[in-house]
């Protein structure tokens, strides 16, 4: 009787200690933002910290890789640049208003800042978040590998919210259900990908939801309000709070029928288990950061998975 071969799921499992980590010395990677450089700002434990960089460069020679999204995309981008620096691949970094590009060994790696992927347009009434519009796509189409991400800014309100009105299906309003807005923005992005990308030339990835750790009850520590005293991963392979709703919405949108294959980098659960991986108070801004990730650290594993998918 023939047995059906099961495909390995790289995204499921538990964290184990590996003495060969960290994969790079953050003090020797000058491109790291101060918010991500935990060792420089006083973190003493190293446990939060194999990537074949030379093989990556050889396989990707002549290619353009672009991360598109918010500061979590920059976290991901800087991890990859530092991993390649570690194998003796010096890079030239060029910064523009919303773009940073690192070029090494004929491989261009860039990050494009786009908090929502859809547009924010200045109009007479104010700044309008347009859920049906993407105008930055011509820049994105120039890359051979695209890694998209959005989520962090969708629930921002008050002074830190970068828009005044939201437009959906031609109707302008002060606000709407944020999860519905997130779903609509993702749907607009997916339609853009289907209409504008050639799957024979461009590999498209969407990074799963990157979790924050401000609610201790989510990992069975009632009363804990941040990640400041967390120094070890959660045991096991499941997160007590389960999968976030945003992750379910993302999966439902990108798994629907499409002419452009979209590969999910399903980093959510493995990152949920790493409550210890955030800068906490050890960062250049001095506040409590349980949203971004230390470098070296968890985003290096995201890049291991990206590398595996690219080689697949």
Automatic annotation (TrEMBL):
InterPro entries, alphabetized: TBL (IPR029962), TBL_C (IPR026057)
UniProt GO MF annotations: O-acetyltransferase activity
Domain Trichome birefringence-like C-terminal: 50-308
Any one GO CC term of the record: Golgi apparatus
Superkingdom as given in the UniProt entry: Eukaryota
Pfam annotation, one family: PC-Esterase
Family classification: Belongs to the PC-esterase family. TBL subfamily.
The name this protein goes by in its record: TRICHOME BIREFRINGENCE-LIKE 38
Species in which this protein is naturally found: Perilla frutescens var. hirtella
């Amino acid at each position: 009787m023939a047995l059906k071969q099961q495909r390995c799921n790289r995204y499921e499992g538990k964290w184990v200690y590996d003495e060969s980590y960290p994969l790079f010395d953050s003090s020797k990677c000058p491109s790291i933002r101060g918010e991500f450089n935990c060792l420089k700002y006083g973190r003493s434990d190293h446990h939060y910290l194999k990537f074949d960089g030379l093989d990556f460069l050889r396989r990707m020679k002549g290619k353009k890789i672009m991360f598109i999204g918010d500061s979590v995309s920059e976290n991901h981008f800087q991890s990859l640049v530092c991993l390649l620096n570690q194998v003796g691949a010096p890079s030239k970094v060029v910064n523009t208003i919303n773009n940073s590009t690192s070029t090494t060994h004929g491989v261009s790696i860039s990050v494009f800042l786009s908090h929502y992927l859809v547009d924010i347009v200045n109009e007479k009434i104010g700044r309008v978040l347009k859920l049906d519009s993407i105008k930055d796509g011509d820049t994105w189409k120039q890359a051979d590998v695209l890694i998209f991400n959005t989520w962090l800014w969708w629930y921002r309100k008050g002074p830190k919210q970068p828009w005044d009105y939201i437009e959906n299906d031609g109707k302008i309003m002060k606000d709407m259900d944020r999860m519905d807005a997130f779903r609509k923005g993702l749907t607009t992005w997916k339609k853009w990908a289907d209409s504008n990308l050639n799957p024979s030339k461009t590999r498209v990835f969407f990074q799963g939801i990157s979790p924050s750790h401000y609610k201790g009850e989510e990992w069975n520590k009632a009363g804990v309000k941040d990640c400041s005293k967390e120094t070890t991963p959660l045991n096991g392979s499941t997160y007590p709070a389960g999968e976030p709703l945003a992750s379910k919405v993302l999966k439902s949108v990108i798994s629907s029928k499409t002419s452009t294959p979209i590969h999910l980098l399903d980093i959510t659960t493995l990152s949920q288990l790493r409550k210890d991986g955030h800068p906490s108070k050890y960062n250049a801004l001095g506040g409590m950061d349980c949203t971004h990730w230390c470098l070296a650290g968890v985003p290096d594993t995201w890049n291991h998975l990206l590398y595996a998918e690219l080689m697949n």
